[in-house]
């Protein structure tokens, strides 16, 4: 769907199969069409058909994609990067904190096992451009794209700001209230959302796991994300045993139940999130 004059959102459905059941998911990729075309994120494996079919529908071809920016290294964002690059010849950009997992997906799986990982990711790709806070892409016609480092969900997660159109693309930096809690650092997640909230004149918030939110709805989503993270921290604190280390799987099952989330959500990456909550709690004691 077209969001602004130059930005298009492409919704990509997929499934995550776990021992506890199947989760129906979706993720967004974004096309920014200026004098140059930039693709932001690539969806899961085989998403290139959805993306390139949409590109053709709006009057462009694969070879016009000059750059693929990956907001971070997780499977639903890098899954079809190989095919996109092969079909378009584009270069790939990501933050230094994500580079090793993008360039070696087997390492990523070893260090962060995700259910049916290898069906979600085609394979590794090389990062041509290492991004940092404040980098700016000139897309021509006074259209600029600024890189914002927003860690928490992962160490090298980035967001992208288009001041000319009031667009903020946040990857997975802004969690959805009631959705899967996925982050590596609780405190960093809070700080990143507060950092994004500080941008004025926001017209469209584009979150990978949510439909586009316009005007005040975008700020409301960020407020809800902060409330949700604080609520999770409170639940973790409430359920944590006083003087012992909990069995993480059983503890996570209890937290999910208290949050009203389905048992199918119990998987290693959610457990990893609650570990981050426990770490944050212990650092304050």
Automatic annotation (TrEMBL):
Q: Which UniProt keywords apply?
A: Hydrolase
The signal peptide annotation in the UniProt record is none
What is the top-level taxon of the source organism? Archaea
Pfam (any one): Lactamase_B
Q: Name the InterPro entries for this protein.
A: Metallo-B-lactamas, NDM-1-like, RibonucZ/Hydroxyglut_hydro
Example of a GO MF term: hydrolase activity
Q: Where is the Metallo-beta-lactamase domain?
A: 26-209
Q: Which PANTHER family match?
A: METALLO-BETA-LACTAMASE DOMAIN-CONTAINING (PTHR42951), METALLO-BETA-LACTAMASE DOMAIN-CONTAINING PROTEIN (PTHR42951:SF17)
Name of the protein: MBL fold metallo-hydrolase
Which organism is this entry from? Methanobacterium subterraneum
């Amino acid at each position: 769907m077209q969001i602004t004059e130059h930005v298009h959102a492409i919704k990509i459905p997929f499934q995550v199969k776990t021992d506890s059941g199947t989760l129906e998911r979706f993720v967004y990729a974004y096309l920014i069409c200026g004098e140059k075309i930039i693709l932001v994120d690539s969806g899961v494996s085989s998403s290139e058909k959805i993306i390139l079919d949409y590109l053709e529908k709006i009057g462009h071809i694969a070879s016009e994609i000059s750059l693929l920016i990956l907001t971070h290294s997780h499977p639903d964002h890098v899954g079809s990067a190989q095919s996109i690059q092969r079909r378009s010849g584009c270069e790939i950009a990501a933050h230094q904190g994500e580079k090793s997992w993008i360039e070696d997906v087997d390492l990523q799986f070893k260090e962060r096992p995700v259910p049916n990982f290898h069906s979600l990711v085609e394979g590794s790709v090389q990062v041509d451009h290492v991004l940092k806070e404040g980098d700016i892409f000139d897309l021509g016609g006074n259209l600029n794209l600024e890189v914002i480092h927003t860690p928490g969900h992962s160490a090298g997660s980035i967001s992208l700001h288009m001041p000319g159109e009031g667009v903020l693309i946040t990857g997975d930096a802004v969690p959805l209230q009631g959705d899967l809690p996925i982050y590596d650092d609780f405190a960093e997640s809070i700080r990143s959302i507060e950092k994004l909230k500080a941008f004025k004149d926001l017209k469209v918030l584009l979150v990978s796991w949510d439909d586009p939110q316009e005007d005040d709805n975008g700020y409301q989503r960020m407020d809800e994300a902060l409330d949700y993270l604080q609520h999770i921290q409170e639940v973790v604190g409430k359920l944590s045993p006083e003087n012992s280390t909990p069995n993480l799987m059983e503890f996570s099952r209890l937290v999910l139940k208290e949050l009203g989330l389905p048992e199918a959500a119990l998987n290693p990456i959610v457990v990893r999130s609650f570990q981050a909550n426990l770490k944050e709690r212990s650092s304050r004691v």
